[in-house]
Design brief:
The complex is a heterodimer of chains A (601) and B (688). With 601 residues, chain A is α+β, with helices and mostly antiparallel strands. Chain A is built from 15 helices and 20 strands. Chain A has helices at residues 17-41, 45-48, 72-75, 79-89, 155-158, 176-185, 189-217, 219-242, 299-313, 322-325, 353-369, 437-443, 551-559, 565-570, 584-600, and strands spanning 53-59, 64-67, 98-101, 113-121, 127-136, 166-170, 173-174, 247-255, 265-274, 279-283, 328-331, 388-393, 398-403, 446-453, 469-475, 480-485, 506-510, 516-518, 522-527, 532-536. In chain B, the strands form nine sheets. In chain B, strands 19-14-13-22-23-35-34-31 form an eight-stranded mixed sheet, with helices on both faces. In chain B, strands 12-11-4-1-2-3-28 form a seven-stranded mixed sheet. Chain B has a four-stranded parallel sheet with strand order 6-5-9-10, sandwiched between helices. In chain B, helix 11 (373-379) crosses helix 13 (416-441). The relative contact order of chain B is 0.10.
């Protein structure tokens, strides 16, 4: 994206490091208040359990300023583009307006992420800021009961209702036409209504706080703060990039085949770190055109994934906003699967699968340029253990449809630490909660037979990749559909700098007589009462050679059952027993031999 | 005579109340290697001061009420017992998976936290109960015995058990308890449905694991405390303050030591509620307790102290959630020792790193080189370097000034006073955020609340904090410097009973609920007849843990009566829920039904018959008013009157700028603020 030149300061007086710190804390507190409200009042599991939502604050001229602690894929880019679309479609914004936005062609991530935008209008009628509350819905009116329609040929086949910044409140009152449309086309409408209230409540609380804040310190001061905060953030980014090694890397990855992309979806990243210019440049133009399936990325998800890979990889704390983004240059192409999609391309699954491949490949490219930077690949989504379940039961007083979050693992190893196991996928960075088995069994007609991490499933490395999670569950009342779009059954999460890959994903049906039948990677699986679905989520990649991992740590991994005695010997060159008692001499000898063999290759 | 002792990180605070309602305050250093010694030291000081001698004083004692950080320290330092975890087959990773969640999204330098009990000490038991209590797979006793034999061989010191749905059918957990007693005699164990009968397996498992792991240690500690108090002459009852803001017998605490996790901080709101009632007309109160390293915030909402089930030991998501219902206390790393620093981009930060007690702030002269909040206060003239802790420690102002200029002033282009004032502004902002976080979560508007300042460092920026929050009033109680101990002194004997029984107002299971409530009431009555015998007053209160359909976080609604006699009572519950939801979240879905997941009964037995908490004037306290130059950001250097807290006559109004100090604390009165000492002894401050 082009660098935005800093504007002239309005009040003429520079804010000092103390005022900046304090104003920033106040802005953050406002976003946090919004997020707290959303978390506590949301109705669907996606929202209140998995925290699949975000709140942020955009300046009047549509620059992302402050973000609550949110899922990164939601908020690095997009909020600014959505606010821009709101202004473009509604040149006259009024106090009391609220807009519903989920169009991936106008800045939203994907259609399941309903977003409420509230312009903050001061007493003089000037639009100062926009409050943004975005939440993944349990249902968005797709043609099948899932919010991730991997097989969708286009937006019509996908079926989601698309709202390109549509006015949903005027003078603080609902526009009932829109509400009624939603209630007629979204499954379990009272659940959507509850989540709508939660989002609206969050945005309105943010608006109220911002109005008070502006009155208290003056709107000019806040606008000046924004300019200086962008400069401050840019300066930290400049320092971070200057501390990185110069170099250029090309990484590739491949999303598994799915209907509409029968050969899989190859991804190629060209990334260059230019410390002298304090710039990172990423070129995505040499990638395939949009596919007739739901996996195409929206522009917001393309750019967010690139930023995510970079911010994960720079190893220094830098605020993520328009200011630090100025040091990143992206080359995108219209009509590209990782670029700018053209209507009616479907972006139903834009926040996860191909986005994961993209973000991971960016982080890996950085790692290839310099040890101590970047990351390995995180496992990908969406295995049945976090699929969308649906059916009809007495327990739910009729139809139910909800995404469950029974579990995932698959964190990527970083240069400094073993993986954060329960990361989910790169775009969510571990922010989601995982469901309580008891809570799910209480709310839905389901039975969770098993849930545990799998030994030897994280990528081996100097730092270890996160493990795969095994989950088995079934229906206790009638048939249950489970919608999922698993990636990583063929190409697992890659390790980096000689680190090993994670275990690949797989899924099965356990039939009434106990047999396991393989299931397709992308399906709306019908599980009959008494059967169960078995899900292995993918493991994450390792960083650095496993032969460099401290032998004591490997022995501890064995004692704690993350690594088997055999894998310790074969992959890490460490000899120990199941209790983790280390044979130091045998280990030294074995590692020497293995290192020599590795050098010959 | 009654004694309340709060063993904190740095000081052991003691309040002694004689039979006539007069209270005296003492502080001794905490002795971490043997905390009971610090307790006895403080008692020694008191005995000498009162002129009775320690033994004679203790012999007159009827109650000893103790707050201790022993349990939480053991967890933080990894000194708990070698504990095994037994759970349902297929679910061995409950303590590893936790509930997910992560903060600091782009920072991958921190490893994933280890489970509270390692996987190598986790065992799967063949059994399964369904959500409605049916036994889907019976307990395999033979396999269980094999596991217990292995635990014996591994020399496990404690055992925790959490089976899925034990809250609905506890048969399998009970049986495992019997087998543990049989095969591992003398090894303490905890069953999840007994210690924390609540939904969500991770929280219950975590409670059980933490509780079991503390049993050997807390049993020994509390045993030693009681024995040594007896040897010193004390013949009365030894109580320990609980994480739920009540008190229980030391022996009972040894059986369920998870109750002592937040023993100290949970007492502060008790005292805060007392002072809010006594010295203010505000409905809600915010209690801010500022020590050397932590800033603890708790609340009183409409006369009640709100609870949470999300107490973290250590950082959120990286520490351990106790899952145990407790007084909601928000702690952040902010206090006198918080370090000020300027980052690469030129932004000033204060904390979260602290200079701690060693080396401490630069002005302590113990080798600290990084400027802290205390250093800033000394430079501003707020703290008198010659009268810190009543003159017990002399502070080095010049060293503090050099450090502030080097690390903050010069990098930001500020002169010394403005640099120090900036440190205070940022520190104040951090504290304000901690307060805003907890008040927004509990639905309290700070503008209508009174702030009660406690802890030795509270008075330094309390006026600045209430100005930022817009609170109408600020109260610094006489016992403020030992607020937790004061809370201990007035705490009631307390026990909590809870049960899971799911129902909805749309199809209310009246008989089932009434049976559940009756069973809870019976347990409360047994408590009243047992530990509560002879108490002055007994109160039983009932609560529903309820939510809207498909919400997953419950909120508490107090029941107006312990029985549902008809549809009107059910409708009352529904309406009361809407009101509480609206209060906390600003919205209510008034057409919706309400689901209830859990029921709770709380029994309190009052032990203290007086309504006073007044400190005896120490000998020699006189109204020696002096003057000194102090700095305020908007006013520059000004001449301020300095008053002795204990010598202030009541109803005499002091206007800022002024300093009010005692041996235990310093209160800064900014220009424009005024203070008056109430007949109760408290300092009531009007911020504007």
């Amino acid at each position: 994206m082009a660098a935005t030149p800093a504007r002239k300061l309005k009040s003429g007086r520079e804010l000092d490091g103390v005022e900046l710190a304090i104003l920033n804390k106040r802005m953050e507190a406002i976003c946090r208040k919004m997020a707290n409200t959303l978390l506590r009042t949301g109705r669907s599991g996606v929202l209140n359990s998995a925290r699949d939502f975000s709140c942020c604050l955009v300046t009047g001229d549509n620059r992302l300023l402050t973000v609550s602690e949110s899922l990164p894929i939601h908020v690095l880019r997009g909020a600014d583009m959505m606010a821009e679309a709101m202004q473009q479609f509604h040149p006259e914004l009024k106090k009391g307006d609220a807009y519903l936005h989920n169009s991936p062609y106008h800045g939203c991530s994907h259609p399941a992420d309903h977003t409420i935008l509230v312009p903050v209008i001061d007493d003089k009628g000037i639009h100062r800021f926009t409050m943004v509350a975005k939440a993944h819905q349990a249902d968005c009116g797709n043609s099948i009961p899932t919010t991730y329609h991997g097989g969708a040929r286009d937006v019509y086949h996908e079926g989601a209702l698309i709202f390109p910044a549509v006015k949903i409140q005027e003078a603080y009152k609902d526009i009932d036409d829109i509400i009624r449309m939603c209630q007629l086309r979204i499954r379990v409408p009272q659940q959507w209504w509850g989540d709508y209230l939660a989002m609206l409540g969050a945005a309105r609380i943010g608006e109220r706080e911002m109005l008070q804040f502006g009155e208290e310190v003056g709107w000019d001061t806040l606008e000046q703060f924004a300019d200086q905060w962008f400069d401050y953030s840019e300066q930290l980014m400049i320092n971070a990039v200057r501390a990185m090694p110069a170099g250029k890397a090309i990484t590739t990855s491949m999303h598994d085949p799915i209907p509409g992309a029968e050969q899989g979806i190859p991804i190629k990243i060209v990334l260059e770190i230019k410390p002298k210019e304090a710039m990172i440049e990423v070129d995505l133009r040499d990638n395939p055109d949009n596919y007739p399936c739901g996996l195409n990325l929206s522009q917001a998800c393309t750019e967010s994934s690139v930023l995510l890979g970079i911010f994960n990889g720079i190893a220094a704390p830098v605020p993520t906003n328009q200011g630090s983004f100025r040091r990143i240059k992206m080359h995108l192409r219209e009509g590209c699967v990782v670029g700018i999609p053209k209507h009616p391309t479907s972006c139903s699954v834009a926040t996860t699968n191909v986005a994961d491949r993209l973000g991971n490949s960016v982080a890996r490219a950085i790692a290839e340029i310099g040890d101590g930077f970047g990351m390995a690949s995180t496992g990908s989504l969406i295995p049945p253990s976090i699929g969308v379940i649906s059916g009809t039961s007495k327990k739910t007083h009729g139809a139910y449809v909800n995404q469950i979050f029974l579990g995932w693992g698959g964190g990527a190893a970083s240069p400094q630490a073993d993986a954060w196991i329960s990361i989910g996928h790169i775009g969510n960075a571990g922010g989601c909660f995982q469901d309580s088995v008891e809570l799910d069994e209480m709310r839905f007609p389901m039975f969770v037979r098993d849930r545990h991490y799998v030994t030897d499933s994280g990528g081996a490395g100097r730092t270890r990749g996160g493990e795969s999670m095994f989950v088995e569950f079934g229906s206790t009342e009638g048939d249950m559909e489970v919608g999922y779009v698993t990636d990583g059954t063929i190409t697992p999460a890659e390790g980096v700098r000689d680190g090993g890959p994670g275990r690949s994903a797989s899924q099965f049906r356990r039939t009434l007589n106990g047999d396991l039948e393989p299931l397709a990677a992308c399906a709306q699986a019908l599980i009959r009462e008494g059967e169960s679905i078995v899900s292995f989520s993918p493991g994450g990649g390792g960083y650095g050679s496993p032969l460099e991992r401290k032998a004591e740590l490997v022995a501890r991994d064995v004692r704690e059952k993350w690594v088997s005695v055999e894998a310790a010997r074969d992959k890490y060159g460490v000899v120990c027993d199941a209790a983790g008692t280390l044979d130091v001499a045998a280990t030294e000898a074995r590692r020497k031999t293995m290192m020599r063999a590795a050098q010959k290759h | 005579m009654r004694f309340a002792v709060d063993t904190g990180g740095t000081f052991t605070d003691l309040l002694v109340e004689d039979g006539k309602g007069e209270i005296r305050m003492y502080k001794a250093e905490t002795t971490p290697d043997d905390p009971v010694r610090g307790v006895l030291d403080a008692l020694g000081l008191a005995g000498k001061d009162i002129g009775l001698g320690q033994r004679e004083m203790l012999e007159k004692g009827e109650l000893f009420i103790h707050g201790t950080t022993r349990a939480i320290n053991a967890i933080v330092t990894g000194n708990t017992a070698k504990t095994a975890f037994l759970t349902t087959k297929g679910h061995p990773d409950i303590l590893v998976i936790r509930e997910g969640g992560r903060s600091d999204m782009f920072n991958f330098k921190e490893p994933y936290p280890d489970p509270f009990i390692p996987r190598s000490l986790t065992y799967e038991v063949n059994e399964r109960i369904s959500f409605d209590g049916k036994v889907l797979e019976p307990l395999d006793e033979k396999a269980a015995r094999t596991i217990l034999e292995e635990l014996k061989a591994k020399k496990v010191e404690a055992v925790s058990v959490c089976l899925l749905w034990s809250i609905v059918n506890s048969k399998h957990e009970e049986r495992l308890g019997e087998l543990i007693e049989q095969y591992l005699p003398g090894i303490p164990y905890t069953l999840s449905h007994r210690i924390n009968p609540s939904l969500r397996e991770y929280r219950r498992a975590s409670s059980a694991a933490i509780d079991a792991s503390l049993k050997p240690l807390m049993g020994a500690y509390l045993g030693s405390l009681e024995r040594r108090l007896r040897e010193a002459g004390f013949k009365g009852r030894v109580l320990v303050v609980t994480t739920q803001g009540g008190a229980m017998d030391a022996l009972a605490m040894a059986d369920a030591p998870i109750h002592s996790i937040n023993s100290g901080p949970a007492m502060a709101p008790l005292a805060g509620r007392f002072y809010a009632r006594q010295d203010s007309s505000a409905k809600d109160a915010i209690i801010a307790d500022t020590g050397g390293t932590t800033f603890d915030v708790s609340l009183v909402r409409d006369g009640r102290i709100p609870w949470t089930r999300e107490t973290w030991i250590g950082p959120v998501y990286r520490g351990h959630m106790t899952g145990f219902p407790a007084v909601d206390v928000k702690s952040i790393g902010a206090g006198g020792g918080s370090i000020a620093w300027v980052d690469q981009g030129g932004l000033l930060h204060v904390g979260p790193r602290s200079a701690g007690a060693v080396p401490g702030p630069v002005c302590y002269g113990k080798g600290g080189t990084e400027p802290t909040v205390t250093d800033a206060c000394v430079v501003l003239g707020w703290i008198d370097p010659a009268f810190f802790l009543g003159g017990a420690m002399r502070l080095d102002r010049d060293k503090a000034a050099d450090a502030i200029m080097a690390k903050v002033g010069r990098p930001l282009g500020l002169d010394l006073h403005n640099a120090a004032a900036s440190i205070m502004r940022v520190a104040t902002e951090n504290m304000v955020h901690a307060i805003e976080d907890i008040t927004v979560n509990q639905g309290i508007d700070p503008r209508g609340a009174v702030l009660i300042g406690g802890g030795g460092a509270a008075g330094l920026n309390a006026v600045a904090i209430v100005r930022r929050l817009g609170c109408a009033e600020l109260v610094i109680p006489e016992t403020g410097a030992a607020l937790s101990a004061a809370g201990g002194l007035i705490s009631d004997l307390r026990a909590e009973q809870s049960a899971t029984h799911y129902t909805s107002t749309a199809s209310f299971d009246r008989d089932g609920v009434n049976r559940t409530l009756a069973a809870l009431d019976a347990k409360c009555q047994a408590f009243i007849a047992g530990p509560g015998a002879g108490s002055i007053e007994q109160i039983v209160e009932f609560t529903a843990e309820a939510r809207y359909p498909s919400q997953i976080w419950e909120i508490e609604v107090h029941l107006r009566k312990p029985r549902f006699d008809g549809p009107a009572d059910i409708e009352t519950l529904r309406q009361d829920f809407h009101a509480v939801h609206e209060q906390i979240f600003a919205i209510a879905d008034t057409k919706s039904a309400v689901e209830v997941v859990g029921w709770r009964a709380s029994v309190r037995c009052r032990l203290r018959d007086t309504e006073r908490l007044t400190i005896v004037q120490p000998k020699g306290a006189r109204g020696a008013t002096s003057k000194r130059r102090v700095f305020f950001a908007d006013h520059g250097l000004v001449e301020a009157e300095v008053h002795r807290f204990e010598a202030l006559p009541s109803d005499h109004r002091i206007s800022g700028p002024a300093i009010i100090e005692s041996s235990f604390t310093t209160v800064v009165l900014d220009p424009g603020a005024s203070a008056v000492r109430r007949p109760s002894g408290s300092l009531a401050i009007t911020p504007h």
